[in-house]
Amino acid sequence: MKCFPFFLLMVIATLTNTTVAAQITIDLQQQGKPLQPVWAHFGYDEPNYTYMKDGKKLLSEIAALSPAPVYVRCHNLLTTGDGTAALKWGSTNAYTEDKNGNPVYDWHIVDSIFDTYIQRGMKPLAEIGFMPEALSTHPQPYRHYWKPGVKYDSIYTGWAYPPNDYKKWGELVYQWVKHSIQRYSEAEVKTWLWEVWNEPNISYWKGTEEEYFMVDDYAADAVKRAFPAAQIGGPATTGPGWDKAAVWLKDFLVHCAEGKNFATGKKGVPLDFISFHAKGSPKVVDGHVQMNMSPQLKDVARGFEIVHASAYKQLPIYITECDPEGCAACGMATNPENAYRNGTLYSSYTAASFARIYDLADRYKVNLAGLTSWSFEFENQQWFDGFRDLATNGIDKPVLNVFRMYGLMRGNRIPIENNNQIPLDSILKNSVHANSADIHALACADKKSSSVMVWNYYDAAIANDASPVTVTIKNIPAKKILLQHYRIDKDYSNAYEAWKQMGSPQHVTDEQYKQLERAGQLQLLSSPEWINTANGEAVIHFSLPRQGVSLLRLTYE
């Protein structure tokens, strides 16, 4: 075997870690389909955080970032309890029974949750679950007291079991929908989405597949009896990249199309949309976090494939949990791989993965309607403790600014010409572990503006030199344009770095809090700039750091 000189090996190593300059071109005359606001969907386990101080603040910010109504999904809307908030727990006490076994409905906590959404112009994606204690076939133990580091399976208590009376279960759902119409109007409730249960193919459901079909059939029948125009869907199964989850999804679609309805005795079950979940898989490698987008995109691709092959290929698809991994309430103290959540690795991953999911929807010719980021906030926790949240103690994390960028994008999608993108099939197979980063873009335009989101994503949390990027925009219908360049990186739109520069305090002063609030907002890289186009063309040069995201927004008359 030949021995290479040490300096030559160093040159080779340097070259393999060097990113070729990205040349990104878009032609505004090549317009495609409208850019659907699939990103305007968020969710969380703990419904009682909704109306708490930081919960309300964050919901107001989420509502403000989107030109389209934001949909919010949360667990535990029918769980029995006094409304005390805790990690992976929540309750509303919507259903109890008197001493004679008669139903007692109490909607005041559910109303306080939905009121918080409606007041902000948001829409519930109303998850019908979990099982009230009085209806559970195995009610005890019921309330769990899970915390990070405790065995995860301990959360699956009495709320996860089938009902002891399916007719009472159906009547509960019927009364909930009727009450919602009375409180919010038919016109409002018509815009909501109703989804039956969560991940019934794992321990969130302690019954059989057939028993899940039963609980779904009774719920769907109740929703439609109460309000025929309501939109009902499911099955909210885990990622179909797992074979057993794929079987559940297929079986559910066949049951809805051809099976005997357990509630009505007739053929088929109402189904207005399809939902499933998709998750990635980060880990710690050689002392640093390494993301893995491949499992998440494979979940998406397999789910799209199954839907396209079904009787429901035209129905809207909502991926009602779409995240880099599974447990939002597991911080980095117990799960070191979750350290990505505080900084720009989370924001660049989100920009890159959501854009690739648009591409997968095009490939499989399905009707993608929503991608729910299962990330909200956790009240009364340590600052930047590595939970999968959008804000910590009322201070926005960098990832929230990616959604602000998406909220600024309008119009129809524009195809991207890019010499430096990693092919979609390569990311499906290997994520972005290899020698080069994925520097790619998503673009759209309407009559008076165009937007280009560019990211420099790599799986590993390893620093690298910034990469040169050139964005060429052709056929701009104006001689003069206003360029606004927004940026998320170490120095911009990044409250986490600002907090570290303060010394990582767990108790901040009022002035520090104001500084962090400002640092947490989406920031411009430079002042807005007027640019003259040459034959309808503009060429924009900039450097983009590893894990950075830029949004170029051009406006014109």
UniProtKB/TrEMBL annotation:
The keyword Signal applies. Residues 23-519 form the Glycosyl hydrolases family 39 N-terminal catalytic domain. Residues 1-21 form the signal peptide. GO terms for molecular function: hydrolase activity, hydrolyzing O-glycosyl compounds. Pfam families: Glyco_hydro_39 (PF01229). The active site is at E199. InterPro entries: GH, GH39_cat, Glyco_hydro_39, Glycosyl_Hydrolase_39. GO terms for biological process: carbohydrate metabolic process. Belongs to the glycosyl hydrolase 39 family. This is Beta-xylosidase.
